[in-house]
């Protein structure tokens, strides 16, 4: 979870993630983790800036051959 997603927007200062959306996200992540666990896998969840968290995870894991990212699409006004 990137803390920057819970600050105001760059245009009007409204929260990007309100309480209802946050609850939905948390429930969705919990459900995904439980589903993966039933199938013998797991889900790593971290809070922090992705550029820091991913670097730390790579260091912890030691042998990472590839990393893929998704960038948020931002509307230009």
UniProtKB/TrEMBL annotation:
<feature type="domain" description="Photolyase/cryptochrome alpha/beta">
    <location>
        <begin position="1"/>
        <end position="77"/>
    </location>
</feature>
<protein>
    <submittedName>
        <fullName>CRYD protein</fullName>
    </submittedName>
</protein>
<dbReference type="GO" id="GO:0071949">
    <property type="term" value="F:FAD binding"/>
</dbReference>
<keyword id="KW-0157">Chromophore</keyword>
<dbReference type="GO" id="GO:0000719">
    <property type="term" value="P:photoreactive repair"/>
</dbReference>
<dbReference type="InterPro" id="IPR002081">
    <property type="entry name" value="Cryptochrome/DNA_photolyase_1"/>
</dbReference>
<dbReference type="InterPro" id="IPR036155">
    <property type="entry name" value="Crypto/Photolyase_N_sf"/>
</dbReference>
<dbReference type="GO" id="GO:0003684">
    <property type="term" value="F:damaged DNA binding"/>
</dbReference>
<dbReference type="GO" id="GO:0003904">
    <property type="term" value="F:deoxyribodipyrimidine photo-lyase activity"/>
</dbReference>
<dbReference type="InterPro" id="IPR014729">
    <property type="entry name" value="Rossmann-like_a/b/a_fold"/>
</dbReference>
<dbReference type="InterPro" id="IPR006050">
    <property type="entry name" value="DNA_photolyase_N"/>
</dbReference>
<dbReference type="Pfam" id="PF00875">
    <property type="entry name" value="DNA_photolyase"/>
</dbReference>
